[in-house]
Amino acid sequence: MLNIDINPANYENQYLDSLNECFNGWGVMADYDWVFKREAESYSSDIMILKSEEDLLLAGSGLTYRKITSNLLKEKLDVGIMTGSWTLPTARGKGCFTEIINISVDLAKQKKCEYLTAFVTKSNASYRRLESAGAKLVESAYLFSSSKVDSSPKNLAAIEIVEQSEIEKHIESLLKKRNDMMEGKLAYHYNIESFTNQYFNRKGDIQLLKFGRQYAVIEETSDKIKLHLLTYSSLDEFQFSMQSLAHWALLKKNKGIIYFSTQKRIIDSCEKMNFESVEGFYTVMQPNKKEDKLNLFDKYSIDIQMGDKM
Predict the structure, then answer these.
(1) Dihedral Cα 222, 223, 229, 232, nearest 10 deg
(2) DSSP 252
(3) Pick from 175, 229, 197, 190: which is nearest to 69 by CA?
(4) 3: part of which helix (H) or strand (E)?
(5) pLDDT per 10-residue tile (average), the chain, 310 residues
(6) DSSP 25-88
(7) What topology does CATH give the domain 3-113?
(8) Residues with Cβ < 8 Å from 86, sequence gap 6 or more?
C-alpha cells in the first residue's frame, strides 16, 4: 500500500533533492520556483509525494496547468502537464509511476482539464505506461546541432542581438509572429504577460536575436545554446534560419544548438541538416472519458517548441 500526500507543506527542499538525485543537475530552488510556483493563466500547480507504509520516501511528481487553443477553435482548453516526475532508484519496479498517472488523472479531472499530457523520450519506459493507460502518442524530438551541420557562411542571415533594455519593445511583435506561425495548429495560449513570463522571466541568460523579419529566443548555458523559440513563415525560411543560427552559435560561441519540436516536418528538416535527434513523445490522455476527444490531435497537429515546456 502506498501513502499519498498531495501538496505537502514545506516539502520543496526534499522534492528538489530527489529530483537532483534522479536527474543529475536538474536545478536549484530558483528552477523549482519557476517551474512550480510562477503565475500562470490556468490553475496553480500541484505536487504529490508517494511513501511506503513504513513512511519511506519513494516517488513524486508535479502537475502544472496550461491552456491550449487554435485559431480554428472557439475556446481555450485547460490541460494538465505531468511535470518533474521522479522515482528513487530503490523504489523502481514497485508501481510508483502507474500510481502517479492515476493520481494525475484524478487531479486533472478535479480541475476540469480536457487533457492530461506529458513529455517523454523513447528511451524512458514511462511512455509505455502512459500508452497502456490510454494516452495518445504524438511524436516529438530534441534536436542537436553539431560541427557537421550544413552551415556554410555563404548567404546566411545577419544576426543581431537585441539589447536587454530594448527587448520589451519587441515582445508584442514577437508574440504576433509566433501566433501567426501557429495558425491552423494547436498551441499553448499566451497573452503578453504570460508570454513574457514564459520566455523572458527565466533564471538563465536569455537573449533575443533578430534576423531579417524573424526572431529567435535563446538561452546560453555553459556548453550549449537552448533555442527556446524560432519564428518562421515557411519550411524554407525555417531551414535558412536554423542553418544561420547553427553557424552563428559555432562561430561566435563555439557551442551547438538544442531545439525541441512536435512537428514532423521540422524534425525531418533538422535531421536532413545533420542534426542529431533524441526521439520522444508528447502524450495526451483524457481525464474524463465520457466523450472521445483525442481525435482533436488527429484533426490538428500541436506545435510546441523548447521554451513552451516546463
Answers:
(1) 140
(2) I
(3) 190
(4) strand 3-6
(5) 92 95 93 88 90 94 96 91 95 92 96 96 91 95 81 75 96 97 95 94 92 94 95 95 92 94 97 95 91 88 94
(6) T---HHHHHHHHTS--SSPPPEEEEEE-TT--EEEEEEEEEEEEE-TT-SS-EEEEEEEEEEE-
(7) Aminopeptidase (3.40.630)
(8) 18, 19, 21, 22, 23, 59, 60, 61
Sign of the torsion formed by the C-alpha atoms of 64, 188, 199 and 240 = positive
**What are the grid coordinates assigned to 129, written together?**
505506461
Fold assignment, 144-278: Aminopeptidase (3.40.630)
Answer whether 284's CB lies under 8 Å from 294's CB: yes
Per the listing, cell 514564459 goes with 198
C-alpha cell at position 227: 533555442
pLDDT for 291:
75
- Distance CA(275)–CA(31), nearest Å, equals 28
Would you state the pLDDT for residue 156? 83
Cell of 116: 492530461
CA distance 47 to 104: 10
Nearest partner of 158 among 115, 112, 214, judged by Cα: 214
Q: Which residues contact 298 (CB under 8 A, 6 or more apart)?
A: none
Question: CA–CA distance from 182 to each of 75, 103, 139, 234, 303 (Å)?
Answer: 15, 32, 18, 12, 7
Q: Where are the domains of the chain?
A: 3-113, 144-278
DSSP bridge pairs for 224: 256
Asked if 3-113 and 144-278 have one fold, the answer is yes
Burial level of 229, CB count in 10 A (0-12/13-18/19+)?
buried
Query: Measuring CA to CA, which residue among 84, 86, 80, 91 is closest to residue 2?
Result: 91
| CA distances to 204, 224, 262, 306 from 145, in Å | 20, 10, 17, 14
Rg from Cα positions in the chain: 20
